[in-house]
Amino acid sequence: MSNSLLDLIGNTPLVESKVLNTNPNVKLYFKLEGHNPGGSVKDRPAYNMIKNGLERGDFSKDSKLIEATSGNTGIGLAMVAGVYGLDIELVMPENSTVERIQTMRAYGAKVTLTSSDIGIEGARDYAESKVANDSYIMVNQFGNDDNWKAHYTTTGPEVWKDTNGKITHFVSSMGTTGTITGTSTYLKEQNSEVKIIGVQPEEGARIPGIRKWSPEYVPEIYNPKKVDDILYVNEKDAIVMAKKLAMEEGIFSGMSSGGAATIALRLASQLESGVIVSIICDRGDRYLSSNLFD
User: Reaction catalysed (predicted)?
Assistant: First the structure.
């Protein structure tokens, strides 16, 4: 029995691909982050950033918090802020799925929608202006070390333990880069030979949750030395794979997870042997109003 909902964050399942991976010499595992109480991998940094921020005195229960988000971090922050009784405003592009917007509001957060023409970068600019002019405090997932450290202390150790230290390749989509940075840091400390593969969209592809940032918006927490290789995926392949994951493996996830799984499966087909872990970062039910599963 847990004392708090927040105690249920982490320790997510690791399941082996039984259908899509056809290389008998390679084990491919999916880490199901949708099993977190807020439904995504972002529950981990959301909890770590708020808990540690309160403990350090970076903000208090009287503070007005704000954060720009493409969805999952916002849901995690809304959930955690609600448990702590904090006031938080979440800023996101207006073309975000209605499930995400309504979930944040259900947790008690204020949601502000910015023009889809300026994307998440515009949402970040809006949040920055509120900090500069209206006494808001930014949670700052893009520059807060508590983001990647959440994965250093939880995701990395879980992956290492659940593969009995046999992991050879870790595959993760790259957004804020917290997941890949923190998990890489831990895994490389255990075995420097583990290969860390980042996934980004091909030029012109739009895949929610995966970003190829313009130079001025690259997250401050990103350390390119933590990533051995960056591989690219297009929108069509990410969509097809999200559908295959659901229909053939019973794994219901979003497009960014489909993108990571695409790269993980390509890798599995090329290796002579190995143990691959690919992050399934959220659940598919927050995309039902989109055309992902049409």
Answer: O-acetyl-L-serine + hydrogen sulfide = L-cysteine + acetate
Q: What's the CA gap between 241 and 265, in Å, rounded?
A: 10
- Rounded CA gap, 194 and 196, in Å? 7
**Which residue among the candidates 70, 256, 278, 290 is catalytic per the annotation?**
256
**42 in active site:** yes
In the annotation, is 256 catalytic? yes
| Full DSSP string of 159-180 | HHHHTTT---EEEEE-SSSHHH
- Does the pTM exceed 0.85? yes
Six token digits for residue 97: 């799925």
The string of pLDDT tens digits covering residues 13-63 is 999 999 999 999 999 999 999 999 999 999 999 999 999 999 999 999 999
pLDDT score of 8: 97
What mean pLDDT is reported for the chain?
Answer: 95
Quick one: which of 138, 117, 112, 34 has its CA closest to 76? 34
**pLDDT-derived band at 119, boundaries 50, 70, 90:** confident
Query: What is the C-alpha separation between 45 and 294, in angstroms, rounded?
Result: 32
Contacts with 151 (C-beta within 8 Å, 6 or more apart), sequence order = 44, 45, 178, 179, 181, 182, 183, 186
pLDDT over 70 at 1, yes or no: no
Catalytic residue among 31, 42, 188, 226: 42
